[in-house]
Design a protein that fits this description.
364 residues, alpha+beta, Alpha-D-Glucose-1,6-Bisphosphate, Chain A, domain 4, TATA-Binding Protein, 8-stranded antiparallel β-sheet, 6-stranded antiparallel β-sheet, 14 strands, 27% helix
């Protein structure tokens, strides 16, 4: 069974069982733990007490019940890793908790995070139970991990560890920020010395954060998959079509807001062999010169050639206008140097070459 969450924790007994060295402890001896503090110098009466500095003084008012020597856990602290887009960790929060902010406007964020939890547990082969739907509390069934020794028919189970997690979602009133909290709620361990339901605080924190990091990675994967799907949809979508403008004149209709298309048009001109000679930003008109490029054999071999538009060399106007009742659609009307609108047949003929340019598929 794939239990990646255990790889991040101390609970990989299979590793420690094969070695006499514990990854919890520092190497070397611990003689310092048994040393008694030296007494202060006794100064005879009549002599001056030497100067004493307290720069490195350690007071005795400390927790004497904590671990000493080989009992000290020297592992680096576990951290929540906000690798998913727009995820963040609260400062000074020791909980296994992370906040996600809205990334995909067409997705309900709370439902998106819940689905990530479901999918992660499904990939681990563990079921998810709804404990309190109103309070958004869910719990996993048991994660089980066994360590074995021997081989083939002589394998024996040395240790069995099982744990269950609670997942709680916390949503801001505006719905664009959702927190996920992971808590270890049940633990059992069985080995040659018997069974135990106790786990120390450090190991508990480590497995909680490891589980949370697995889900954060799942959220990141879902974001990337959705972004790839959106790119494919955009690549296959017909963003430029042939129709008429508000004056019933032949024009291209681009699925883009007017100001955005206006600001991007210089990129189109540069890639398609047009030179901008003048513009009227108020009326949204570009005045351009077109000279059919001289494309050499080497240009074609190296893929550096510009699209070969079947246009006569000369001056042209590109007039942009917002499509009525459609703020995110813009009409592009082409005029020749005499101010005549290019014909329906010519625009239709040019459409296969103009469509990728005006949709900027090769740019964004």
């Amino acid at each position: 069974m794939n239990r990646k969450v255990f790889y991040f924790s101390l609970l990989s007994i299979a590793i420690s069982g094969c070695s006499s060295v514990s990854n919890k402890q520092a190497s070397g001896d611990f003689d310092y733990a048994t040393k008694q503090e030296a007494k202060e110098i006794s100064v005879p009466v009549g002599l001056k007490t030497p100067a004493k500095k307290n720069d490195f003084f350690v007071e005795n008012n400390i927790n004497h019940k904590g671990p000493v020597g080989k009992d000290i856990d020297v592992r680096a602290p576990s951290l929540v890793l906000p690798v998913a887009a727009s995820s963040r960790v609260e400062t000074n929060n020791e909980q296994a908790k992370i906040w996600f902010d809205q990334v995909l406007d067409n997705k309900d964020l709370e439902k998106f995070i819940y689905q990530a939890v479901q999918e992660q547990l499904e990939s681990d082969g563990v079921a998810l139970d709804v404990i309190d739907a109103e309070s958004k509390i869910f719990e996993s069934q048991w994660y089980n991990d066994e360590t074995e020794s021997g081989f083939w028919f002589f394998e024996t189970v040395n240790t069995t560890e099982s744990m269950r997690f609670r997942y709680q979602l916390e949503t801001k009133p505006h719905g664009r920020s959702v927190a996920l909290i992971v808590t270890l709620v049940d633990y059992m361990k069985t080995d040659s010395s018997g069974g135990s339901k106790e786990i120390n605080l450090i190991d508990k924190t480590r497995v909680e954060m490891a589980m949370l990091n697995e889900i954060v990675s799942q959220v990141d994967y879902k974001y990337r998959s959705q972004q790839q799907e959106n790119r494919l949809m955009r690549a296959n979508q017909q963003l430029v079509s042939f129709d008429v403008n508000a004056k019933d004149e032949p024009a291209y209709i681009v699925e883009m807001e007017l100001d955005s298309l206006w600001s991007n048009m210089p990129i189109f001109f540069e890639n398609y062999g047009f030179n901008v000679s003048d513009l009227n930003e108020t009326k949204k008109i570009y005045y351009v010169d077109f000279v059919k490029p001289d494309i050499s054999l080497w240009d074609k071999l190296w893929g550096d050639n510009v699209p070969e538009l079947d246009l006569t060399d000369g001056k042209y106007q590109f007039i942009l206008a917002e499509v009525k009742d459609a703020e995110e659609r813009t009409s592009v009307t082409l005029l020749d140097e005499n101010g005549a609108v290019l014909s329906h047949s010519l625009l239709e003929k040019l459409l296969p070459l103009m469509e990728p340019g005006l949709s900027f598929k090769n740019i964004y």
